[in-house]
Design goal:
This protein has seven helices and 14 strands. The chain has 274 residues and is of the alpha+beta class. It is globular, with a radius of gyration of 17 Å.
Length: 274
């Protein structure tokens, strides 16, 4: 991916963030697509903006966005963008700031580039697999690299405020992890690992989608980390089923194998993987 393309991604993410913050500052209403699945004007307006800007900047690329009904581009292969306009809508509604704009590019089904933007803190993570990752904040920019911690007992776990379950607790106990941080958004969790502020994230559930994973995966892998399902297999983006059926394991590379053995057993025990 060329520098101009990254600049366009950053511009689009920041533009969407401005829209999200405009709604965030208002007396917005909340609707529900399903139980425990809120949506606001911010999701819809940012979704429309991102799709429009991506089509203008990258004509010919496919686009699959959470708040768009048409996912047919996921069936075409080649270059396809996976968009979550507000990852962490529950946190948006709670007004705790732990939400992000996420854009991910998959090429022939493999995560290639990603941007995760937290507008409340002005933290913008950007990564291109094989080219590196950066964090921009308040006019400064620095390169990112995951930690080299290999002892599972020394790992810093980042968990969801709204999705932590008994299976995660089982893995934490088995690994001996004692340091834990909570935050919303898959992208923000991946960002914390990428910037060496955490080491491990587990989502032992099938309740996430491809637009939740593509951008964060590209970011974390660009920073030297690992991002797979709970069987240790790479995600393939595309097809007609948008759900991540086998959960998420995001980790630094040094501890990945040790964590995978335990995480795989926990996921198998609840029937998430065979």
């Amino acid at each position: 991916m060329r520098g101009r393309e990254i600049e366009e991604l950053v511009r689009i993410a920041r533009g969407a963030g401005a829209i999200v913050m405009e709604v965030y500052a208002s007396d917005f209403s909340v609707a529900y697509k399903a139980k425990s699945d809120p949506v606001t004007e911010a999701d819809k307006r940012a979704n429309e903006y991102i799709v429009r800007e991506l089509r203008a900047a990258f004509p010919g690329d496919g686009i699959v966005a959470e708040e768009s009904e048409d996912i047919s581009d996921a069936l075409k292969g080649g270059r396809c963008w996976y968009v979550d306009p507000v990852d962490g809508t529950k946190e948006f509604v709670a007004r705790n700031g732990e939400f992000a704009v996420m854009l991910g590019l998959a090429v022939d089904g493999e995560a290639s580039a990603g941007v995760v933007f937290q507008p409340v803190t002005d933290k913008l993570y950007a990564g291109v697999v094989g080219q590196g990752a950066t964090l921009q904040q308040h006019g400064a920019e620095r390169e990112l690299r995951v930690s080299e911690v290999s002892d599972p007992r020394e790992l810093r776990l980042v968990v969801s405020r709204s999705h932590r379950n008994r299976a995660v607790a089982k893995v934490v106990a088995a690994l001996g992890v004692s340091e834990e941080t909570q935050t919303g958004s898959v992208g923000l969790k991946a960002g914390l690992i990428a910037e060496d502020a955490a080491d491990l994230y587990l989502h032992i559930s099938d309740k996430s989608s491809q637009w939740d994973a593509c951008g964060p995966e590209a970011l974390l892998r660009a920073a030297g980390g690992r991002f797979t399902d709970l069987a240790g297999d790479a995600y393939h983006y595309g097809g007609s089923d948008m759900r991540n059926r086998k959960g998420i394991l995001a980790c630094n590379a040094a501890a990945f194998d040790a964590v995978l053995d335990v995480a795989r057993d926990a996921a198998s025990s609840i029937g998430l993987i065979e």
